[in-house]
Amino acid sequence: MTNNSRNKELETLNKITNMQKDLLGSLYGDFFTGTTSKSTQKSGAGNSGASTSPVNTGKVTGNTGSSIPVAGGKSSDQAIKDANDAINEAKNLFAADSNLNKPEEEEKPLEPEEDPMESLEKLIGLSTIKDDVKELTAFVKVQKARKDQGLKSVPVSLHLVFTGNPGTGKTTVARIIARIYKQIGVLSKGQLVEVDRSGLVAGYVGQTAIKTQEQIKKAVGGVLFIDEAYALAQKDDAFGQEAIDTILKAMEDNRDDFVVIVAGYTGPMKKFIESNPGLKSRFNKYIEFPDYSIDELEEIFYMNCKKYDYKVDEDVKHQIRALITAKKLENIDNFANAREVRNLFEEIITNQARRISKLENPSGDDMMTILLEDLTDEPLDKKEEK
């Protein structure tokens, strides 16, 4: 602790002590003064001619709520206030001093973030999407470089429309694009803020704009990703229209550091964009996300296995492929792709956990291996009993 710091603390402590003296002097002085006054008045009743006014350094008023003056001309209220101020000052001093004396914690070095283009390349399938993103990135990058060199650049909209079924990687690609835009310098932060209708629309007139602006504020410097955006353009929906108008204004006001990506089923999204001239003029780049093939879905399943330390017996693999194929055929129009595979993976490892929990001392290999009986919700021994 430095001498200046120590002197400051001593000065503050002296101030507190003086305040306490003033405060206690006022309280106890008034108490004894009041007692003396009463006793003097009582004795004065027997000595009618004597003047028995008590000696008092201050003036005590009646029950009017007025403050009691104390030594130095201060009222008791002022003494209390000064004491509290001095105590707070001391607390701040001690807090600052304790922070100075704390050993500095070593900052852990952050792991280097993967290059967004590498993240894109690692995605399973999506070959046309990868080409579209690379093409878009190259064009935007060159136009920015031309502008920086003082050359004329072709105006390009960074806002995108993602179309396709659920589970085809739209959100993942949007997150990567946000990072790419930051990397090439067209966005300052590169974060992704994901919302849907419920995150933008409120239940009362006027509140939707406020709620939408809150999400926009989070997304400035990055990307606002609106899933199932067509839900904002329902018939006679004033709230949804209010959200759209607020977003369009923000796109104009923050055109240099704010990107919007809207996503949803192909048909409804095209109708949504066509329904509003403001949307149509700003969203002119569409990227269609096709459904995954059976091979790609199977690859996604094994990617999850690898990620969470599971392995599948060789004689079970063809059964897993059959399950994936059956699920896709059952929901041919609304198949959720990678989402369906993720759900299937979770069902299987839940069944496996139930089986493993009945073993006396399961080994690490036991806990990693997925067997044929783990593919069904019903244990194999119960099926055989039937």
List the helices and strands and how they pair.
Blueprint: H1 3-46, H2 76-101, H3 116-122, H4 127-148, E1 160-164, H5 170-183, E2 192-195, H6 207-219, E3 223-227, H7 238-253, E4 259-264, H8 266-274, H9 277-282, E5 286-289, H10 294-307, E6 311-312, H11 314-330, H12 338-356, H13 364-368, E7 369-370, H14 380-385
Helix pairs in contact: 1-2, 3-5, 6-7, 10-11, 10-12
Description:
With 386 residues, this protein is of the alpha/beta class. It folds into 3 domains: 3-41 and 66-100; 116-289, Rossmann fold (3-Layer(aba) Sandwich); 294-385, Helicase, Ruva Protein, domain 3 (Orthogonal Bundle), CATH 1.10.8. It is built from 14 helices and 7 strands. The chain has helices at residues 3-46, 76-101, 116-122, 127-148, 170-183, 207-219, 238-253, 266-274, 277-282, 294-307, 314-330, 338-356, 364-368, 380-385, and strands at 160-164, 192-195, 223-227, 259-264, 286-289, 311-312, 369-370. Strand 3 (223-227), helix 7 (238-253) and strand 4 (259-264) form a beta-alpha-beta unit. The radius of gyration is 37 Å and the shape is extended.
